[in-house]
Write a structure and sequence with these properties.
It is built from two helices and 24 strands. The strands form five sheets. The chain has an eight-stranded mixed beta sheet, with no helix packed on it. The termini are far apart.
Amino acid sequence: MERSDIIPIGYSGNCLEIIEALIRQARVPAILDDAGKYRGQTFDGVPILPMARMADHPHARFLCLVGSEKSYHARPEIIARTGLEPDRFATFVHPAAEVSGQALIGHGSVLYSGALVTSNGQIGEHVLIMPRALVHHDVTIGSFSIIGAGVIIAGGARLGECCYVGSGSAIRNGVTIGAGALIGMGSVVVKDVAPGEVVAGNPARTLRPAPR
């Protein structure tokens, strides 16, 4: 089977794990990142180029890997600025990840090594699910969200768009996490979280209420 061209957007931190896997699974003609400190560098022979060079690859598909607890809110804007249609974004499941045949994964979403999405999982577009995260049955994760390494999301939980769930957290079955909320590392979430709220701890408590 002929390998397709996939170009990652973002180069640092968690991006590198997926870029390594991409190079083994697809043709990666470039990595796009506007940070000047990477100018002229390469990764495993692949050049790191500014975002303006996207136009050089009209038939490639793309993956937006940018996102952290500081920048996750910016993901929708970063993706919108590309001007690409939804089908120009790839969906990438690491060979060591697993997805139920009954689950749905949206355009642009990425499952890192060891991630598991079980039956009837509904994963939106441009979601990043980090290594060894476990998404149980009937969970919904809204577009642009980031699920940290080792997170456990129990059955029927619902996460809105553009949420950030810190590594090692656990979310109780049936809980709703509002859009834009941030869950601190290692938190145990046992009740609903309002949109935009920041919570942490065991059990998770509000650190910063949702903006009004």
